[in-house]
Every structure is written in structure tokens, then in C-alpha cells.
């Protein structure tokens, strides 16, 4: 038994380059139970981060009682992390689940039945459509539903109502990943595979605190680091994270200077001849402009702007340039910082310039934050058309019209789908009057919380919130719909390296809660949305109908699901798309042949100017004759808009801890996780703490021009001049929707600004001031196990005790094989 | 030679465009993207203006014979609301097209003169002005349906 609160990543199973990652099966059952007590195991995958660890849910007497990693799955080889182990089941089974619909009567939310609640929605929706038309409706969904649910939502919004105002909270976490891939490769679609960790000689983690955001993926890296021929690790992050502690080079750049650093790395590749001219000529366009754009970024210039040493810049570039197999991963340190898309595209450029793409160990993982973010992007529930179709391509819109049996002009395609921040702006201005929020909590997760609360509270707004619990956001609603969640419904979803998993229903939802899919189908039925031939727009009877409809939508597209079925997803491993007749076992890596979906009729996007987000347009794109090559898009580095001042001298960034997910709607319901990271804190460097007279655990006020929080300080490993706050800590545990004098949500301080291309909000650019307000009563409630490790060695370590003991079975079976291994076997 | 007239037009045009972008940024600060991008683009216009400096030092600049032609010049105030944003962006767009065409014409003259220094300045600036136009058009297209159909 291993205390997996104290040891986040679990027992090491070292392996060497090119070997298969050994299996280790992690399982956690309710106290007093062992496997013999379990009635049945139900197949699923974890929904508490984007990693997509396959698992089985233990069921006893009609209740979920535990979880076990699936040894046969290529994603996690049996492992689970602390959130999956301790949060999955308790997160669903708390006594305060919503079990009946609520409607607002005389200002208060009261219980009602489904007919009454849905009736209210349909009345308002019908009246608004008649009076103001489809642009009065907005939908804001999640990165945590199943693909069938997103696709249903996409269809009813686009072909039922006809509104462009649909987005997901994926806008906050992965919009830049999708956009950077569209800009460079012509389409969304992860090029690389987790398998590349096993084969690489060097790893670059760009703003990606993998040790806490995807703990099981980091365990795979740790196992390589503990084995023979360990890969070199380069970490780009202003914090002293676990990744930084294991790195050969840590480039602790000033927040907001990522493009300058990347331009410097690219310049070194050119200057030292570490580029692959043949690959560049055959498979890319734009090299000359890129070369001249990076020209001024000498290592010294980078050192000056980014606050790192020129020697480290040279050395990092040398590692990239001279290692045969390099894997890069990118996450929020890039996606939520200044020039987000521009910076993420430069990572793609490193790989395109050196031809390090589509081969074992050589690739890019533009990461996601949430478990089903990939599906929100694929299925048309966020600001994209389903199946990676291009809203600027009339043929693509026509295909959708045919699939859905509606006139092509019913589907909004006159402008890009409206992004989340703009949807909230239209609500603020009163032109969107019905907002339907599913499975997300913007009152805590969106920037500038005070403004978002005002918007949600606006007179004249009809707000529908569909969730598991009465979140901060739900407290503002006119109608609250109780949703069934993980283990209580069936559906498929896709993780960050394109692996599709099926999640089966293990138990019935509590009370009258219904799956999000049933709710959307019910709304569509009640609104009487129809195809042009008079038949119902959505006639699915359940998720599997939805999956089949989705397969048709993806036929021939990059994200081709036609070779996957529920049946095929049972028992073995998840399957990475594209999976079709040509690739019956799925596809490990994209772009092995250096051919990219940039033909005029295939591209998901015709691209944007990286500085302004101006669209390139079909004609200009066509004139470039890109024809299957990738685009080397350059970006000049520009200074951040909000820089520290005398009044607000420190830079503020936000992020997550390994023990909590999002606004803690699920993870706080877990004893073990809640104890490990119970409440909010901020992190400050020892030097700044000394200057400000702050000691470990002291209560501080952090203020920006937008608001303040008052929380204990952890004196630890952030860069001097920076302050870090975890973004998980809202107010619902005190039954409040806002601070009421006790502000703790990291977004009280952030401002509303977004990347011009991906429209992802910039959570990592605010300027703040920190003042001590009271002596502490003990250390800050921050874990000691990862990036928030204290400088003060006397702070007691974070442990879970007997409650957190997990059974780990090391190497019970041989490691699972990937599609490529199967192919090799077939060939042999 | 009348090139100095066109250099003067360009100089004044970039300055008016910079002022107008700033005016829109301040007047529509509640639109965060408009605020930050208009500031970025105003800075870009400033750089265009200073890049023209050495050229104007050589050729001089003459006042326009028809000063009224530029009187649509800089925005001096902004409107409010969704429709107001659309109108203001459209005013800036008009000004930017004028500047864009002026760059084109100055470039023609530069080619005839075989003035490499002038051509280098045009090359650096004209593409950015084109992107400014594209951004304005992208943003207006995005805003139009909501502003024209549902906003009050
Ligand atoms: S790494 Fe992510 S998917 Fe895997 S168990 Fe942890 S939270 Fe779940």
C-alpha cells in the first residue's frame, strides 16, 4: 500500500528508451472492502483531467464503491493519479447532489418537476425566438460532457435554433492548442502520441506543469528518468515546479515573454545549421519570413527580455537541435499568457524546421486541460464546426446541412462562431437574453469574477444552469437542471492524444437527475425542431444513436471515427483516431508522411494574422498554394499590455494543484483531496516575502486594479517578482456565490483580455500588490509535495495517512501494444 | 516633383490613423480586444510615422493642395454601444484604406526613382497597414449581425 497523497506519482517502474512502459495497476476501494466484495466492474475512463486514464468502476449493491486502472489501456498502463483514485467516486456521491429541477419563484430557487422546469425554458426560448430571433440565445458548455452530448448540443444550437453563440469553457483551457494546430497544420488534431515519451531523447515542457496537471503522464516521464538513457528535460516555467526540479535546463522566463524566448531558440537552429533543409523545402512554406523575424533575437537579447541566461538559451537550443528525437509539450503557461497562439505556433515551428514530427519520439503534444475538451472542439459545441469543418468553406457547411437535413443558411456561417468572452459581453450588453450553461462554473473560472457575477445576475437575463451541484453559478439561475454525471450515464470521449474511450453506466443517477444528453434531446423535442422534410431534428433514443450519427459526421475527415464502435471500445484499450477502413486499429501519430491538411478543401481554417487575429480569407489562402505543406508562421514579440507598476509591482499568474480540479465541484467532495489542499493560498518568493515582511502562513491581501483576495501566503519557489494563486477556490462550500467580504477566488484579480487569435483569456498577465494583513496561525494550506513546496523546512509534509493508501500491483501483465506495435508484429 | 505632397499625405495619414486607433481604444474600452488591439495598432502607426522620417528629411514634405480631402481625418470622439462600435471601426477603416492606397502610390514612385531606402520603408509598413485593414474588417463582420439585428 502506498500513500498516494504523500506520493502523487506512486512507485517507480523504470524503463529504457524504446522499451514499453511497464504496467502498474492502481486501485482504491471504499474502506473495509476488497476486490472479492465487488459485484461488478464497469468500464470507463477518468474525467478529472485531459489525460484520459482508462479505469473500471467498482459497483456493489447498486453503488459505486471504488476505482481501478485498466492494465490493457495504452494511455495509463493501469495507473491512476490522486484525483482519479480519491475524487472520481466521492465526487459523484455527495449528499448535496442536485436531485430535482429548481426554478426561481419570488427571487428564491425552489424545487419543481421536469415538466414545469422544461416548460419554463421552452416558453422563454420560443418567445425570444419569435421576438428577437436566434441571436438572442447563447450556450456555454464544458470540457467535461461526452461527445454524443456535445454533438446533440451542436446540432440543436446550429440547426435547431441557428445561433452562432455557442462555446465551451474549453475556450479557457485549450482554445490555443486547437488554434495553433489550425494555423500551423491546417487543422486541429494532435500530431504526437504519449508513446513518444518512451522513445524520445529530449523533452521540452513549455509552460506545462505536467507533474500536477497530468500526474499519470508525469509518472511515465519519471519512469524514463529513472531508467537507462534518460531523456534530457528542458522546462520553461516561471515557477520552481516538479518539472523544473527534474530539468537539465530550467528557463524561468518572465511571464509574458514566451515569444521572445521561442524566437531566440529558433534563431539558434538557423544560425547553427540545425535545421532540416530537405524537410523544410518539401513540407513547409514561410521559412524566409520566419528567419528574418527571429533575426534580432540573439541569446543575449532573449536573456535581456526574458530574464534567463544566454548560456542556458544556447544550451537549450543545442539540445533541441542535436537530439534526434525530441518531444515537446505545451500548456497553460503558454496558452493563457501573452501572445498565446503566436508562442504555441513557434513550438510547432521548432519541430517543422527540424523535421522532428510524426516519428517515434519526435513530436508535439499541444495539451488540453479537460477530459473531453477534444470532443467539445470536434463536435461543434464550442466555437468550431463539427468534424473540423471550416466555416469559411461553403462546401463544408453544405455537408453539415445535408447531414442535418436543413437549409444551408440555417447554419450560422457568416462570421466565426462567437467565442465565450464575447458571448458574455453580449449578455452584458443585453443582446443575448437566454444563456444556457452546462457543466461549468464561470462565476469562479472566468477572469474578473466581479464582472462575471454582475453579468450572471443581470436583470432581463434568463439563465439556465445544468450541473451536478448547486455551484456559485447555479445560484444565479432562473432554472437549475440536475444532471447525471460520470458513472451514471453512457458515452464516449477522447483524450489529448486522440484516444477514444467508452464510459459505461455503472449506477442510476440520484433522484430525478438526467444525463445532459437526455436534457438536450428533451429540449429539442419540446421545441419541435425539425429537418426540412418534417422529421425530428434529433431523433436519437440514446447515446449510441448519437455516436453513430457522429461517425457519419466524421467520415473522411481527419478525426475519422467510422472504424470505432462502442463494441470495439469494450474490453481492450482505447483507440486513437483516425480509425477507419484504412486504419482499423487507429493511428498513433499524424503527419508521418509530412503531408498536412492545408489543401483548400480540407483545411479547417484559412488562418489568421498572429498579431491581430485578422482572418487570412479563402482567396489569400488559396493564392499561397500551400497544398499539403505546413505553415511556418512567424510572430514578432511584442511587450505585454499590463506590466508591473509602482502601484502594482508584482506579476500575477494562476494555475492548479495536483489535488484539485477546476472549481472543486467534485474534488472537494473527496476527504483525501480536500485535506491535502483545503483552501486558498498564494505563493511568493523568499526574497519578495523578506522585503514585504511576510512569513510562511501570514495572511496577505493581494490586489490588482480589478479586485483583491485575502489568503495565507506560502513562501516558496515562484520567481522573484511573481505571485502565484491556485484558481480552484470559490465560495460554494459556504453557500455563497461571491466573496461577501472574504475573497479567495484567483479570478477576482485577473482582467478581461484574450489572445487575439484563439480568444483564450490571458490568466497569467495581471499586475498586483501584496500586503501583509495579519500574522498566520500556522503554515499556508498549500501542499508541500509539488510546486507549492515551502522554503521553510519545518512546515509539516502533506500526507494522506491510512485513508490515502492505495493498492499498487506492479507488472501484473505485459504492457499493452499500440496500433503501430500491432502493425510491426503483422509485418514481422 | 510632387512626391513630397504624397509623403506629407502619408505622414499626416499615419498620424491621424494612430490618433483614431487611440480614440477608439479609449472610447470602447469595454470591448477588451478593441482596447488592446487598437493600442497595439496605434503604436504600429507611430512606428510607420518615424520610419518615414529619414525619407521626408531627404525629399521634404509639402502640404496637400486640397487639405479638405483629409478632413475626414482622425476621429475626435467615439460613439457608444454595439452600433456605435461598428460605425467607429468603419470610420477608421476608411482612413486606413486611404493610408493603404497612399503607401501603394508612394511605392510606385519609389520604384520609378529606384530609391532603395524608400522602398525598404514601404515594404516594412505597407504589409502592416494591410493587416490593419483586415483586422478592422474581421472585427466589423463579427460585430455586425448582433449590432444590426438584436442590440437595442
Ligand atoms: S492523470 Fe488525470 S485522467 Fe489520470 S487519474 Fe489523474 S486526473 Fe484522472
Distance between the termini of chain B: 53 Å
Number of helices of chain B: 4
Q: Which fold name fills CATH's third level, the topology of the largest domain in chain A?
A: Rossmann fold
Bound molecules: iron/sulfur cluster
Query: Assembly state here?
Result: heterodimer
CATH superfamily of chain B: Ferritin, core subunit, four-helix bundle
What helical percentage do the residues of chain B reach? Answer: over 70%
**Domains of chain B, number:** 1
- Please give the radius of gyration of chain A in angstroms: 25 Å
From the helix content, strand content and strand pairing of chain A, which structural class follows?
alpha/beta
Number of DSSP strand runs of chain A = 29
- The low-confidence runs of chain B, each spanning 5 or more residues with pLDDT under 50, are none
Indicate the overall shape of chain A. globular
Largest sheet of chain B: none
What share of the residues of chain A lie within helices? Answer: 25-40%
Query: What proportion strand of chain A?
Result: 15-25%
The major beta sheet of chain A can be summarized as:
7 strands, mixed
Number of strands of chain B: 0
At a glance:
Chain A is α/β, with parallel strands linked by helices. In chain B, α1 (3-27) runs antiparallel to α2 (32-59).
Would you mind describing this structure in some detail?
The complex is a heterodimer of chains A (828) and B (152). Chain A is an alpha/beta fold and 828 residues long. Chain A has four domains: 2-93 and 807-827, no CATH class; 103-174 and 372-485 and 512-562, Rossmann fold (3-Layer(aba) Sandwich), CATH 3.40.50.740; 177-367, Dimethylsulfoxide Reductase, domain 2 (3-Layer(aba) Sandwich), CATH 3.40.228; 650-797, Barwin-like endoglucanases (Beta Barrel). Helix content of chain A is 29%, strand content 17%. Chain A has 28 helices and 29 strands. In chain A, the strands form six sheets. In chain A, strands 7-6-18-17-16-8-9 form a seven-stranded mixed sheet, sandwiched between helices. The radius of gyration of chain A is 25 Å and the shape is globular. Chain A starts with a strand and ends with a helix. Chain B has 152 residues and is mainly α. Chain B has four helices and no strands. Chain B has one domain: Ferritin, core subunit, four-helix bundle (Ferritin, Up-down Bundle), CATH 1.20.1260.10. Chain A binds chain B through residues 132-133, 135-136, 164, 414-416, 418, 421-422, 425-426, 429-432, 609, 611-617, 638, 641, 751-754, 756, and chain B through 30-33, 36-37, 39-41, 81-82, 131-132, 134-135, 137-138, 141-142, 144-146, 149-152. Iron/sulfur cluster is lined by residues 46, 48-49, 51-53, 80-81, 83-84, 214-216 of chain A. Residues 46, 48-49, 51-53, 80-81, 83-84, 214-216 of chain A line the site of iron/sulfur cluster.
Amino acid at each position: 500500500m502506498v500513500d498516494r497523497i504523500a506520493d502523487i506519482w506512486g512507485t517507480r517502474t523504470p524503463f529504457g528508451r524504446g522499451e514499453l512502459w511497464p504496467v502498474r495497476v492502481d486501485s482504491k476501494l471504499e474502506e473495509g472492502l476488497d476486490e472479492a466484495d465487488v459485484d461488478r466492474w464497469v468500464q470507463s475512463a477518468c474525467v478529472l483531467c485531459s489525460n484520459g486514464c482508462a479505469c473500471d468502476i467498482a459497483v456493489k449493491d447498486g453503488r459505486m464503491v471504488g476505482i481501478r486502472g485498466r492494465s490493457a489501456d495504452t494511455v495509463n498502463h493501469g495507473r491512476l493519479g490522486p484525483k482519479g483514485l480519491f475524487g472520481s467516486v466521492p465526487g459523484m456521491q455527495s449528499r448535496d447532489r442536485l436531485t430535482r429541477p429548481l426554478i426561481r419563484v419570488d427571487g428564491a430557487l425552489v424545487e419543481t418537476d421536469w415538466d414545469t422546469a422544461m416548460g419554463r425554458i421552452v416558453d422563454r426560448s420560443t418567445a425570444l425566438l419569435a421576438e428577437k430571433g436566434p441571436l438572442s440565445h447563447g450556450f456555454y458548455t464544458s470540457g467535461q460532457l461526452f461527445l454524443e452530448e456535445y454533438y446533440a448540443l451542436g446540432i440543436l444550437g446550429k440547426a435547431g435554433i441557428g445561433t452562432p453563440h455557442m462555446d465551451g469553457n474549453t475556450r479557457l483551457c485549450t482554445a490555443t492548442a486547437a488554434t495553433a494546430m489550425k494555423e500551423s497544420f491546417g487543422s486541429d488534431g494532435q500530431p504526437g502520441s504519449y508513446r513518444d515519451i518512451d522513445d524520445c531523447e529530449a523533452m521540452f515542457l513549455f509552460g506545462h506543469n505536467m507533474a500536477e496537471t497530468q500526474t499519470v503522464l508525469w509518472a511515465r516521464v519519471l519512469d524514463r528518468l529513472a531508467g537507462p538513457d534518460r531523456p534530457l528535460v528542458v522546462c520553461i516555467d516561471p515557477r520552481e515546479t516538479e518539472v523544473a526540479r527534474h530539468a537539465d535546463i530550467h528557463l524561468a522566463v518572465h511571464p509574458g515573454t514566451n515569444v521572445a524566448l521561442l524566437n531566440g531558440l529558433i534563431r539558434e537552429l538557423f544560425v547553427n545549421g540545425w535545421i532540416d533543409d530537405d524537410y523544410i523545402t518539401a513540407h513547409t512554406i514561410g521559412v524566409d519570413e520566419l528567419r528574418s523575424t527571429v533575426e534580432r533575437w540573439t541569446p543575449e537579447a532573449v536573456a535581456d527580455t526574458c530574464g534567463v541566461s544566454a548560456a542556458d538559451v544556447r544550451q537549450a537550443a543545442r539540445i533541441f537541435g542535436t537530439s534526434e528525437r525530441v518531444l515537446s509539450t505545451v500548456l497553460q503557461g503558454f496558452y493563457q499568457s501573452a501572445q498565446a497562439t503566436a508562442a504555441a505556433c513557434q513550438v510547432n515551428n521548432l519541430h517543422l524546421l527540424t523535421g522532428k514530427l510524426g516519428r517515434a519520439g519526435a513530436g508535439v503534444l499541444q495539451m488540453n486541460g479537460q477530459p473531453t475538451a477534444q470532443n467539445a472542439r470536434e463536435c461543434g459545441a464550442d466555437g468550431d464546426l463539427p468534424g473540423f469543418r471550416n466555416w469559411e468553406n461553403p462546401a463544408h457547411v453544405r455537408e453539415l446541412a445535408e447531414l442535418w437535413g436543413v437549409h444551408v443558411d440555417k447554419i450560422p456561417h457568416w462570421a466565426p462562431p462567437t467565442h465565450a468572452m464575447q458571448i458574455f459581453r453580449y449578455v452584458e450588453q443585453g443582446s443575448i437574453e437566454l444563456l444556457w450553461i452546462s457543466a461549468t462554473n464561470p462565476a469562479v473560472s472566468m477572469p474578473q469574477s466581479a464582472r462575471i457575477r454582475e453579468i450572471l445576475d443581470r436583470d432581463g437575463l434568463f439563465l439556465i444552469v445544468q450541473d451536478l451541484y448547486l455551484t456559485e453559478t447555479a445560484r444565479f439561475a432562473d432554472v437549475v437542471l440536475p444532471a447525471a454525471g460520470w458513472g451514471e450515464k453512457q458515452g464516449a470521449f477522447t483524450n489529448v492524444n486522440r484516444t477514444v474511450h467508452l464510459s459505461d453506466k455503472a449506477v442510476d443517477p440520484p433522484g430525478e437527475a438526467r444525463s445532459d444528453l437526455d436534457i438536450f434531446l428533451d429540449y429539442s423535442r419540446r421545441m419541435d425542431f425539425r429537418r426540412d422534410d418534417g422529421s425530428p431534428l434529433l431523433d436519437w433514443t440514446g447515446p449510441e444513436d448519437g455516436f453513430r450519427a457522429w461517425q457519419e459526421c466524421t467520415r473522411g475527415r481527419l478525426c475519422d471515427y467510422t472504424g470505432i464502435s462502442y463494441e470495439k471500445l469494450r474490453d481492450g484499450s482505447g483507440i486513437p483516431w483516425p480509425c477507419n477502413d484504412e486504419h482499423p486499429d487507429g493511428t498513433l501519430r499524424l503527419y508521418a508522411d509530412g503531408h498536412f491538411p492545408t489543401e483548400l478543401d480540407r483545411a479547417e481554417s484559412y488562418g489568421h494574422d498572429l498579431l491581430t487575429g485578422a482572418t487570412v480569407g479563402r482567396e489569400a489562402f488559396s493564392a499561397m498554394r500551400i497544398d499539403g505543406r505546413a505553415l511556418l508562421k512567424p510572430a514578432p514579440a511584442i511587450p505585454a499590455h499590463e506590466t508591473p507598476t509602482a502601484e502594482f509591482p508584482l506579476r500575477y499568474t494562476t494555475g492548479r494543484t495536483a489535488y484539485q480540479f477546476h472549481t472543486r465541484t467534485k474534488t472537494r467532495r473527496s476527504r483525501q483531496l480536500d485535506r491535502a489542499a483545503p483552501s486558498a493560498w498564494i505563493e511568493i518568493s523568499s526574497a519578495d516575502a523578506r522585503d514585504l515582511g511576510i512569513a510562511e502562513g501570514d495572511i496577505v491581501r493581494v490586489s490588482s486594479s480589478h479586485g483583491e483576495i485575502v489568503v495565507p501566503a506560502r513562501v516558496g519557489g515562484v520567481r522573484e517578482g511573481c505571485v502565484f494563486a491556485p484558481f480552484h477556490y470559490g465560495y460554494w462550500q459556504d453557500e455563497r456565490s461571491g466573496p461577501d467580504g472574504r475573497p479567495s477566488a484567483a479570478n477576482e484579480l485577473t482582467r478581461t483580455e484574450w489572445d487575439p487569435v484563439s480568444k483564450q483569456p490571458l490568466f497569467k498577465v495581471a499586475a498586483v500588490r501584496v500586503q501583509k494583513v495579519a500574522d498566520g496561525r500556522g503554515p499556508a494550506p498549500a501542499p508541500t509535495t509539488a510546486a507549492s513546496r515551502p522554503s521553510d523546512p519545518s512546515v509539516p509534509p502533506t500526507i494522506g495517512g491510512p485513508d490515502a493508501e492505495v493498492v499498487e500491483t506492479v507488472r501484473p501483465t505485459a504492457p499493452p501494444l499500440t496500433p503501430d506495435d500491432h502493425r510491426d508484429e503483422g509485418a514481422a | 516633383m510632387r512626391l513630397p505632397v504624397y509623403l506629407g499625405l502619408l505622414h499626416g495619414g499615419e498620424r491621424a490613423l494612430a490618433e483614431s486607433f487611440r480614440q477608439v481604444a479609449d472610447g470602447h474600452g469595454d470591448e477588451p480586444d478593441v482596447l488592446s488591439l487598437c493600442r497595439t495598432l496605434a503604436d504600429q502607426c507611430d512606428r510607420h510615422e518615424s520610419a518615414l522620417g529619414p525619407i521626408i528629411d531627404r525629399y521634404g514634405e509639402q502640404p496637400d493642395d486640397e487639405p479638405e480631402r483629409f478632413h475626414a481625418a482622425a476621429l475626435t470622439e467615439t460613439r457608444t454601444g454595439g452600433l456605435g462600435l461598428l460605425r467607429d471601426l468603419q470610420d477608421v477603416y476608411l482612413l486606413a484604406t486611404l493610408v493603404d492606397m497612399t503607401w501603394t502610390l508612394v511605392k510606385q514612385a519609389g520604384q520609378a526613382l529606384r530609391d532603395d531606402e524608400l522602398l525598404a520603408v514601404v515594404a516594412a509598413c505597407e504589409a502592416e497597414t494591410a493587416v490593419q485593414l483586415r483586422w478592422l474588417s474581421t472585427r466589423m463582420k463579427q460585430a455586425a449581425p448582433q449590432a444590426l439585428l438584436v442590440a437595442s
